[in-house]
Design goal:
- The protein is an alpha+beta fold and about 190 residues long.
- It has one domain (about 20-185).
- About 25% of the residues lie in helices and about 40% in strands.
- The protein has six helices and eleven strands.
- A hairpin with a 7-residue loop joins strand 6 (about 90-95) and strand 7 (about 105-110).
- The radius of gyration is 19 Å and the shape is globular.
């Protein structure tokens, strides 16, 4: 009986986490799209209570080495913050690609589904942005991109209490926070 209940709880946790899918953004293979899938029932509650849903997309360009650890460049980050305005009934999305010298982009979206799709996707992230001037990584035969998505609910709750509960439970308790884990996307087909 314990094994069955453990299995049910564990399978529920697996399906609650967002999954990551990386695809080519265009036919030139110079951009990638990062898409998330998965249903999180806490997102509408978070938005309706006046808080903000934050997606943090982390990506890094790497190359495999046969005799040593893989070599990776620093993480590049894009953040998406989604909030709900109950007066207008619209959703506000602020997207910012950090360290790109471009100001954050703001969008107003009418429907929840449209807002969730836009928030959970990075469209056309240039590989040159990930390379940050290190072009040898782009031409490497065994180059790949590591991608991770972090999703959480931030707002007017006491973050100190959340940190204390995280420390007390040795990091096991993370309310309304999901981590997809690192996913790899090969830039060139391996032979």
């Amino acid at each position: 009986m314990r094994a069955i209940s453990f299995l049910l709880i564990f399978s529920g946790l697996i399906f609650a986490f967002p999954s990551v899918d990386v695809r080519w953004g265009d036919s030139t293979s110079e951009n990638i799209n990062i898409l998330t899938a998965g249903k999180a029932d806490w997102i509408p509650r978070c938005l309706n209570s006046g808080m903000e849903v934050r997606y943090r997309f982390e990506a890094q360009l790497c190359r495999r080495r046969s005799a040593w650890f893989d070599s990776c460049l620093g993480k590049r980050v894009e953040t998406h913050r989604l909030s709900f305005d109950p007066i207008t009934g619209s959703y506000r999305l602020v997207s910012d690609r950090l360290h790109d010298a471009v100001p954050p982009e703001e969008k107003t979206l009418k429907s929840y589904q449209e807002a969730l799709q836009e928030t959970g996707a990075v469209r056309s992230m240039p590989l040159a942005f990930l390379a940050a001037g290190h072009n040898k990584y782009l031409s490497a035969r065994r180059a790949y991109v590591n991608v991770r998505v972090l999703v959480d609910c931030k707002g007017r709750y006491n973050e100190t209490l959340a940190k204390i509960s995280r420390v007390i439970t040795l990091g096991l308790l993370r309310p309304n926070e999901y981590d997809s884990g690192w996913e790899s996307f090969m830039l060139k087909a391996e032979k």
